[in-house]
Design goal:
By secondary structure, this protein is of the alpha+beta class. It is built from eleven helices and eight strands. A hairpin with a 2-residue loop joins β2 and β3. α2 crosses α7. The longest helix is centred in the middle third of the chain and has 23 residues. It starts with a helix and ends in a 9-residue tail after the last strand. About 9% of the residues have low confidence.
């Protein structure tokens, strides 16, 4: 296996993802920190849409019994999506936004990879997405009010309020804040001290199931989820939710 060629081919494949990555001198450094050569070789060509194990085994010319455990291990690293649908597990390659911006710091605990990647992510990834959304009228997140009066009597109703979001959910979890982690692990970046705990991002539905099943987050009851949100509000934090109508998967 020619490692240089493997990573070049994989970086070209990642560039075709729905949410791509900034071209920079740090791009390959980030990929090498997140993926082993074996990971990169296996995942090159893997679809960014859901596929069955048998479909992927045919694609990679492998036996499903051999491929399954490797994909399961990659799901635990946050590199591959795995969800139970239509009576069987389905997989897809996670795009760079999830891999580098979200899943890298899920699950708690820290290792050398986390410290190595934080300065690179703050230097490359944040500015890239600032540019991506700079001229967009639709932002990636929107804010939600808490059930507290703020002294404004104008007749503008909120799109939804934070607690009502929970009414439509059937599965809940809480995980580490990746933004906070990559700031605090970068010696050249100002620490985020807005909240004393890293567990302050809550997730719902299939996204939450994926996180819990793969060790990225801790399952909550509806009431426990409500308590986390209220505790964050009391600490002065503003709730942000992914900016599409449904399904809401993150606050």
């Amino acid at each position: 296996m020619n490692e240089k060629v493997v990573y070049e081919k994989f970086s070209e494949w990642l560039a075709t993802a729905p949410m791509g990555f900034a071209e920079s001198d740090d791009y390959l450094l980030l990929i090498k920190a997140r993926y082993t050569p074996e990971d990169a070789d296996l995942l090159t060509g893997m679809p960014f849409s859901d596929s069955t194990l048998e479909e992927l085994a045919d694609l990679k010319d492998m036996v499903p019994a051999d491929l399954g455990p490797r994909l399961d291990a990659l799901a635990e690293k946050g590199l591959v999506w795995k969800i139970f649908n239509y009576g069987e597990y389905r997989y897809r390659l996670n795009d760079p936004f999830i891999v580098f911006f979200r899943s890298v710091y899920w699950g708690g605990g820290r290792n050398s990879e986390h410290y190595k990647m934080a300065p690179l992510l703050n230097k490359t990834f944040g500015p890239h997405f600032d540019q991506v959304f700079a001229h967009s009228h639709i932002r990636g997140l929107r804010t939600l009010p808490v059930e507290t009066a703020i002294g404004d009597t104008r007749g503008v109703l909120p799109f939804e309020d934070v607690l009502k979001v929970l009414d439509d959910q059937d599965f809940f979890c809480v995980g580490s804040c990746s933004c906070k982690a990559k700031h605090n692990l970068d010696p050249d970046h100002e620490n985020c001290e807005h909240y004393p705990f890293e567990e302050n991002c809550v997730h719902f539905g299939d996204f939450a199931r994926y996180m819990v099943e793969n060790g990225h987050a801790r399952e909550l009851t509806r009431e426990e989820c409500r308590d986390v949100l209220l505790r964050c509000a009391e600490a002065g934090m503003v709730h942000g939710v992914n900016n599409w109508l449904e399904p809401v998967d993150t606050i």
